[in-house]
Backbone:
């Protein structure tokens, strides 16, 4: 049986081997990789598909800023072991990741990929029309999915590593609780 769970540090080698197999060395040259290579993914938002104790699928989400005003998550890379494809594992990883992001109150997820695959999960190039990813030539591959309706309305500018820690609905609530109360 295939299980989807949060990635552990002991999965790192298997995840990297799987990404090498799925994408080859060009994976390090992708424009989206420039946003990922120097930092960790969003906490608790890396998932693996496991069967018989073996990692056969991976997906991760990363904090990004989308233009100056919008904080979003960048999804990727998504990969499934070539020998295990067309069993619905890629779809299960996508649904799991999007559900986890929505549960945290996140408004939008972005990715670079084929609309022919990702449209089934609600992604399209429509809400990313005024966004760009430095180094990405084919704008049709920049896709977005709103988890909160309107989250990408009017969003315009470059997709970048956020300069300051991202304030999500959860961290904002924790911040409010931590504030000293007036006597
Ligand atoms: C894309 C990927 C994650 C899908 O994993 P999977 O477990 O086979 O996915 P699912 O079983 O949920 O779905 C398989 C379906 O997606 C289709 N599909 C896979 N890649 C596709 C693509 N790039 N464009 C359109 N359809 C695609 C398959 O043809 C299959 O169609 P079918 O259901 O009609 O047979 C896997 O093929 C993979 O790791 N590919 C290499 C990395 C990659 O190219 N990732 C990004 C895609 S832009």
Residues:
């Amino acid at each position: 049986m295939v299980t989807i769970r949060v990635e552990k540090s002991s999965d790192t080698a298997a995840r990297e081997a799987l990404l090498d197999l799925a994408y080859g060395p060009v994976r390090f040259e992708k424009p989206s990789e420039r946003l990922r290579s120097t930092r960790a993914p969003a906490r608790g938002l890396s998932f693996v598909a496991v069967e018989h104790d073996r990692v056969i699928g991976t997906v991760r989400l990363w904090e990004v800023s989308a233009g100056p005003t919008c904080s979003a998550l960048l999804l990727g890379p998504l990969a499934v072991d070539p020998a295990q494809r067309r069993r619905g594992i890629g779809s299960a990883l996508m649904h799991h990741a999007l559900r986890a992001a929505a549960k945290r109150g996140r408004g939008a997820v972005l990715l670079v990929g084929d609309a022919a695959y990702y449209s089934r999960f609600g992604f399209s190039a429509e809400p990313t029309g005024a966004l760009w990813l430095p180094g990405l030539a084919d704008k049709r591959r920049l896709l977005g999915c709103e988890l909160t309706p309107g989250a990408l309305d009017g969003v315009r500018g470059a997709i970048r590593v956020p300069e300051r820690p991202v304030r999500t609905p959860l961290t904002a609530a924790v911040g409010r609780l931590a504030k000293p109360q007036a006597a």
